Amino acid sequence: MASSTVGPASEFSSHNSRSWQLALAAARTAADNRGRDIVILDMREITPLFDYFVVATGTSRRQLHAMSEEIDHTLEDDLNDRRDGIEGYQESRWILLDYGNVVIHLFDEETRSYYDLEQLWCDAQPVELPKDLQSAAKAIKPR
C-alpha cells in the first residue's frame, strides 16, 4: 500500500468535487450498511480512466446486495448520477459498480483478500476518511 495518506486538509482543495462527492457518498452508504474495511483510493495520478476506487467488504451475499442497491439509490436518486455498468451482482463475491470517474468494489472477505486491489494499485494514494467513517474502515483487515 502507498506510504502516505492524503489528509483531510487537502481533501476539498485537491479532489475533484463531483467525483469526491460520489466516492464519499458511496463509502458512507457502505458504512451505513455495515460494510467493513472501507477504503477510498485516489487514482487520479495513476490513470486517466477514473478518479477514485471505493473498496468495501461485506459478510454475506445478502449484505453485498444491500450495499450495492443502497449505493445505487444514493448516487442515482440522491446525487442524480447514472451508473455506467454493474458486474458480479449474480455471483455476489465481487460486485463492481461503475460510475465513470468512481468505481465501487464490494467484496466478500475471501475474494477481497485474493484480488488485493490495494496491493495491485499500490501506487494509488489512500484517502483519509472522515472521522465518522474511520471505525468502519478499520472494522476488519482481510489480510
Could you explain the architecture of this structure?
- This protein is an alpha+beta fold.
- It has a single domain, classed as Beta Polymerase, domain 2.
- It is built from six helices and six strands; from the N terminus they run ααββαβββααβα.
- β3 and β4 form a beta hairpin.
- α2 (17-32) packs antiparallel against α3 (61-78).
- The two termini are 12 Å apart.
- The model is unreliable at 1-13 (pLDDT under 50).
The CATH superfamily is known as: Beta Polymerase, domain 2
**Count of strand segments:** 6
Fraction of residues in helix: 40-55%
Strand order of the largest sheet: 3-4-5-2-1-6
- The quaternary organization reads as single chain
- Give the uncertain stretches in residue-range form: 1-13
Order of helices and strands: HHEEHEEEHHEH
At a glance:
By secondary structure, this protein is of the alpha+beta class. The chain has helices spanning 8-14, 17-32, 61-78, 109-115, 117-120, 131-137; strands at residues 36-42, 52-58, 85-87, 94-98, 102-108, 125-126.
List keywords for this structure.
single chain, 143 residues, alpha+beta, Beta Polymerase, domain 2, 6-stranded mixed sheet, 6 helices, disordered N terminus
Topology record:
Layout: H1 8-14, H2 17-32, E1 36-42, E2 52-58, H3 61-78, E3 85-87, E4 94-98, E5 102-108, H4 109-115, H5 117-120, E6 125-126, H6 131-137
Parallel strand pairs: 2-5
Antiparallel strand pairs: 1-2, 1-6, 3-4, 4-5
Helix pairs in contact: 2-3
